[in-house]
Amino acid sequence: MNNQLLVNNTFKIYKSNAVPQAKFPLQSLNSLLRQQGLYLYEKYQSSNHDLIPKYTNLSDLIKVMKITNRHVQVKDYSINVIMIKSSPIIPNQLILFILKLNSDFKNFNTVILIKSSIPAFLVQSLEASLSRISVPLIIKDVQLTNHSIEAIINNFTASLNDHDGTKIAKLFGDLEIIYSTPLKMESLKTISILIPISNLEKLVMANDQQLKLIDLINHFLFNTTKLVFANLHMARFRSRLLDLSADGKFKIHPENLHLFNNSFSLNNEDSDDQDELDSFVWFVMASVYDCI
């Protein structure tokens, strides 16, 4: 599978009881495409002000839409990929069903990643179109807790060959962490913390207690402000490595991959940039999968 699909895209995380071991039936995919077409045609009609309409009926729209489906196995994961070319009305949509091999699918161990500008309707369409008579497809929304976000970040920093402050700072770049507060005043609903790369490097270098990265940041903030940030809800974590948010969204940034040569633990010492991207992407994917 082309791992470029997994970078520079914001995905919403869900869980499901689906087992992505084979392609979906053509009839189910056509049903999904038609449901999307109906929704988009109504959307087009309600917003169209062209003198000559591009689509005079539903069939005109569906003709320019396309759905593809393939199943692949990458490392220890079984993956079913659906891509919907949704016409110029909305950007293309991408759905990945990811199941770790030898998992117990009865416990909703399939993770679904969705890139869509209409995710709620797409989830409804998937449940209606891809359900089997014996096993209805059920998709559950996933929110990222403080524990999940911290575990994903800490998993990555723990995988580095060393804990050199310069390398970690280069990996993450400038950090922005947004905490939500229990206060009801409009101006204090969130607290945004910006940590420049130079400060992050100094912070890690002075980590005598060998604290994990998020714990280290919260400890520093407590010493500086006397506020217990560990007790606040982490709404968003932004870096040049990846973004994570409490509403269950994440984005992988590959632009600075060249900065972490020899920092990330790769099996192949002679790996090229694509090998590094593949290893990095699937380490992040595994962390997301295991920590939600």
Tally the helices: 8
Q: How many independent structural domains?
A: 2
Structural class assignment? alpha+beta
- Average pLDDT, to the nearest integer? 84
**Unreliable segments (pLDDT under 50, ≥5 consecutive)?**
265-269
**N→C terminal distance:** 23 Å
What oligomeric state is this? single chain
Helix percent reads 25-40%
List the helices and strands in order: EHHEEEEHEHHEEHHEEEH
Q: Total number of β-strand segments?
A: 11
Characterize the structure shown:
The two termini are 23 Å apart. Strands 1, 2, 3, 4, 5, 6, 7, 8, 9, 10 and 11 form an 11-stranded antiparallel sheet that branches. The chain has 8 helices and 11 strands. With 292 residues, it is of the alpha+beta class. Helix 1 packs antiparallel against helix 3 (119-130) and helix 5 (165-172) runs antiparallel to helix 6 (197-205). The protein folds into 2 domains: 3-141, no CATH class; 146-287, no CATH class. The radius of gyration is 22 Å and the shape is globular.
